[in-house]
Write a structure and sequence with these properties.
membrane, four-stranded antiparallel beta sheet, elongated, 2 domains, MHD, Immunoglobulin-like, mainly beta, 293 residues, nine-stranded mixed beta sheet
Length: 293
């Protein structure tokens, strides 16, 4: 952002908080929602990865107030305009590269090319300011390991392990792990890891799959599930060919793998509002998160 010496107003800092509904005051909420798609090979290598993101606003401002959003300084649309020397440094300093993005027709773009600032008058309802997509490499939030061992002609054991790769100050919510099982599976006995509250494992017989749900997973932790399978008939060949892939769904607040930031939010033209409350929230969700076995 430019300083006041450059003749441009310095944007005030953004305050992060949970949304407080039902209170009569001027508020503006900005949500950065990213849906990630990752495919892992059977050895754990990332085959494909993609992020579909959106920046949304929800306004409780009095009157038609014009707001401004300042995005990441090192933000590039496509790799064509990226300087050759801009790949160096830590992950936080590396540029954010979007494959493509689309802005709502009401968004003013006159300061975007130089300062990465968007201006708009947000409506009262939830409003998508910007949609974007990136295939830039990012660290997957979860690592999935699957081990399948035959325990006789009519039995097998599955061991699922998931490791949270994000910082310990972040917690993933409503985590669900699913794995299709061989069609001849008749019964599944589970051995749940102790010490995890609000977890459950079930054999969904109608869908023919194992389902393991964990309400909360703290960053940096690792959890496992053992499942003993019983079959109605002998399997032909490798059991791994008839089981899987493993898939996950989850929601991770305060986490954005693309590193795209809304650095500041402010009222561009003040008309009676001195200092409205402004909240910026990041949420990451699984779109398609799949690991082959």
């Amino acid at each position: 952002m430019s300083s006041k010496e450059d003749g441009k107003e310095e944007a005030p800092p953004v305050t992060e908080s949970a949304e407080r509904r039902g209170r009569k005051r001027d508020e503006l909420f900005v949500n950065i929602i990213e849906k990630i798609s990752v495919t892992f090979s059977s050895t754990g290598c990332v085959l494909t990865s993609e992020i579909d993101g959106t920046i949304q606003t929800k306004s409780y401002l009095t009157g038609n107030q014009e707001i401004a959003l300042a995005l990441s300084d090192k933000l590039y649309i496509g790799k064509g305009g990226l300087p050759n020397n801009d790949y160096s440094g830590s992950s936080r300093m590396r540029p954010v590269i979007l494959d493509d993005c689309h802005f709502h027709e009401s968004v003013r773009m006159d300061r975007f090319d130089v300062d990465r600032i968007l201006s708009l008058v947000p409506p009262d309802e939830e409003f998508a300011v910007m949609n974007y997509r990136t295939t830039q490499e990012f660290k997957p939030p979860f690592i999935i390991n699957t081990l399948i061992e035959e325990a006789g002609s009519l039995e097998a054991e599955v061991i699922l392990k998931i490791r949270a790769e994000f910082p310990s100050i972040i917690t993933a919510n409503t985590v669900l792990v699913q794995m299709p099982l061989p069609a001849c599976t008749t019964r599944v006995n589970f051995d749940l890891e102790r010490g995890i509250v609000e977890q459950n494992a079930d054999f969904n017989e109608s869908q023919g799959r194992l389902e393991w749900s964990v309400e909360k997973i703290v960053g940096g932790s690792e959890h496992s599930l053992r499942a003993k399978l019983k079959f109605s008939q002998e399997l032909d060949g490798n059991i791994s060919k008839e089981a899987g892939p493993v898939s996950m769904t989850f929601t991770i607040p305060n986490y954005n793998p693309s590193r795209l930031e809304v650095k500041s939010v402010w009222i561009a033209k003040k008309t009676g509002i001195s200092n409205p409350y402004r909240w910026v929230r990041y949420v990451t969700q699984a779109n398609s998160y799949v690991a082959h076995v």
